[in-house]
């Protein structure tokens, strides 16, 4: 059966959350059978909620799904609670740990009808920096699941392989992550998530072995994703990183300016523009300007930069005092 929400799910994959919400809200079931319509509405509500979560609207999702009893929507609500807990109290807070534990408990029993439970539980463990736990959970499910039946099950299975690949990259094993991507491609080589992870793993391989071929493969993968999904801030940044690996700094800057045109206050884009300009300019004025803009966003990069800046200033002050 055709997945009416195919493009909506792809928009979520590449971080185009506004598009996912708009297209998902407007989607209609192809079948008129009551059971099919109900099943479609559950999936529709789930993807729209994920778009809202991506935009930082987790509180609204928790409220909207509070009375829902369908297992998928319950899991999405718990995921929203986790994102809110991480935002309000930190990734390692008791509140975040409780939400993660809830997702884990829901994923204890392997079931072909509930692959999404493993997806959210493993992703939550990655947020908690429990990389081994996430990899173990993903492998447990992938090791016993039958061949996926249907478009949605196929997509969930490919995404679970993606979680495993992400965990392996965090363990500094791009070689094993590449094998996981091959398994993803065996499940669905045309899936956007498979193409995206193919590029991400190639990018990591390029950083590890400095082989031009790996960076070229990454560029090809990211351009294919853009061709199919349109402009994406996340994909443009990944493309720029691969282009920087090839020392194609002008091309990298163009990719980042495309991303900045979509979201002018994106911290990662501004930080990457600073890196590009540091490489390609005789003057560091442009790089410094982008650094200041990125740090003003008060995101994770900005906080890390300010912390290092303070440490440097303290070290200089101590040195001057000792002198």
Automatic annotation (TrEMBL):
PANTHER family listed in its UniProt record = COATOMER SUBUNIT EPSILON
Task: Say if the entry is tagged with keyword Cytoplasm.
Answer: yes
Coiled-coil annotated spans: none
Q: Which GO terms describe its cellular component?
A: COPI vesicle coat; Golgi membrane
Question: What biological-process GO terms show up in the record?
Answer: endoplasmic reticulum to Golgi vesicle-mediated transport; intra-Golgi vesicle-mediated transport; protein transport; retrograde vesicle-mediated transport, Golgi to endoplasmic reticulum
Q: What family is reported?
A: Belongs to the COPE family.
* The entry's keywords: Cytoplasm, Cytoplasmic vesicle, ER-Golgi transport, Golgi apparatus, Membrane, Protein transport, Transport
Question: What broad taxonomic lineage does this protein's source fall under?
Answer: Eukaryota, Discoba, Euglenozoa, Kinetoplastea, Metakinetoplastina
Which top-level group of life is the source organism from? Answer: Eukaryota
Q: What is this protein called?
A: Coatomer subunit epsilon
| Single GO molecular function | structural molecule activity
Q: Enumerate the InterPro entries for this protein.
A: Coatomer_esu, TPR-like_helical_dom_sf
Species of origin reads Novymonas esmeraldas
